[in-house]
Amino acid sequence: MNEQFFEQLIELSKKAASNNEVPVAALIVMNDKIIAKSSNSRINDGNPLNHAEIKCIIQASKTLKDWRLDQCDMYVTLEPCHMCKEIIKECRIKNVYYLSDNKKTINYQTKFNHVNSQLSTFYSSFLTDFFRKLR
Q1: Which of 17, 6, 64 is nearest to 36 (CA)?
Q2: Pairwise CA distance, residues 70 & 73, whole Å
Q3: CB 93 within 8 A of CB 53
Q4: Plot region of 31 (φ>0 → left; ψ -120 to 50 → alpha; else → beta)
Q5: What is the pLDDT of residue 108?
Q6: Is there a contact between 77 and 51 (Cβ–Cβ < 8 Å)?
Q7: What pLDDT, on the 0 to 100 scale, is given for residue 75?
Q8: DSSP line for 3-65
Q9: How far apart are CA 119 and CA 61, in angstroms?
Q10: CA nearest to 28, candidates 79, 74, 61
Q11: What is the pLDDT of residue 1?
Q12: What 3-state DSSP class applies to 67?
């Protein structure tokens, strides 16, 4: 863990706040070198996906030309939300270091409904076959 990375995060957070964004910033580091950095821009961009962590992951993936970031660590000002945590896990980032706990709770009302039909059976087989051929 490198204190200088957190100092850079604070500067990025201040910049985001000055643009009326939620002041969250993230860095992705590989071999003690910053390969991506970003701050939230979902308010100004009108895009719910523009969390600092996600934008940082996209940058790092482009830099490394790989979606697997298993040799990388992430530094972030605020503990990632559930969406970002899942994406962080999906791209296999090794460690996440954050300054502040995320105490925000959201009352999700979205319901996910599994549709059981012939197409469900077809798709399950199709997906299984795809990965079998891939490997």
Answers
A1: 64
A2: 8
A3: no
A4: left
A5: 75
A6: no
A7: 96
A8: HHHHHHHHHHHHHHHHTTS---EEEEEETTEEEEEEE--HHHHT-TT--HHHHHHHHHHHHHT
A9: 34
A10: 74
A11: 67
A12: coil
pLDDT for the residue 2: 82
How far, in whole angstroms, is CA 81 from its chain's centroid? Answer: 9
Dihedrals phi, psi of 73, to nearest 5 degrees: -120, 155
End-to-end CA distance of the chain: 37
Whole-number Cα distances in Å, 88 to 29, 35, 53, 132: 13, 15, 8, 26
Record the tokens describing residue 10, joined without a space.
């604070």
User: What does the alpha-carbon distance between residue 115 and residue 4 come to, in Å, rounded to a whole number?
Assistant: 50
Q: Which member of 53, 79, 86, 90 is catalytic?
A: 53
Determine the residue type at 125: S
- Look up 86 and say whether it is catalytic: no
Exposure of 38 by Cβ count < 10 A (0-12 exposed, 13-18 middle, 19+ buried)?
A: buried
Written as tens digits, the pLDDT of the chain (135 aa) is: 688 999 999 999 999 999 999 999 999 999 999 999 999 999 999 999 999 999 999 999 999 999 999 999 999 999 999 999 999 999 999 999 999 888 877 777 878 788 888 888 888 889 999 999 988
